[in-house]
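Sequence only, no structure available. Ideas?
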Amino acid sequence: MAIVDDDTIFAETVAKKADTFLAFKSVPAEVWYGDGRTLLSLLRECRNFEVYLLDVEMPDINGLELAEKIRIFDPKARIILLTAYDRFALQGIRLGVYYYILKDSYWLELSRILERICQEEEDREEYYFIATEVSGYKIPVNQILYLTKEKKYTIFHCLNGILYKERDSLGNVCQRLAPERFISVNRGMVANMKHIISLERLDITMRDGNVLPVSRYEKTKVLGKLAEYWRKE
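Reply:
I predicted one. Tokens follow.
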């Protein structure tokens, strides 16, 4: 979630509330706040967010202008406009914004909207199932960062540092995952393209800050698939 407001104290307050709300819902999420120019720089680096909360009335670049630019980088973005006045509602509707909130009652409305978004994501979420003789796990595919092999096991590295282990080969596991979302970066490592932030030289940086090595053999294929995935996203 990205929050853009020229009042940094207000933006920080909203970010903390949103982070606490999502943590309570057990939804792993990155909550960022800052100015519009910085957000556009992040978007140019293919760092997208699921939700954008934008103050309408800001100097330099206002929320409506910013919403138009976000649409170029992220056509599927859920954009929420935040303002002290309702006169911008029609323009927001024309931009296809997800919701419109007045500042004087923002948190009550925003919490309801986040609740609805969480439910929408839950309804369309895909899962990977691990079953053993004594336990079973239902892993949201979107929470898988990358997979590695460890002897006879495949290790699932997920958001928030959570690890799962399945007694099966990495190759077999990958056959059960969507090939348009996961890519082999070297002989023993497969990454979820949703969480790749950048590819520089022979290193991939993941959303959690981990850096994965890319083999020279795989680099051209990885770069091509990433470019195709980012264009679609």
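The domain at 2-124 is CATH 3.40.50.2300 (Rossmann fold).
Hope that gets you unstuck.
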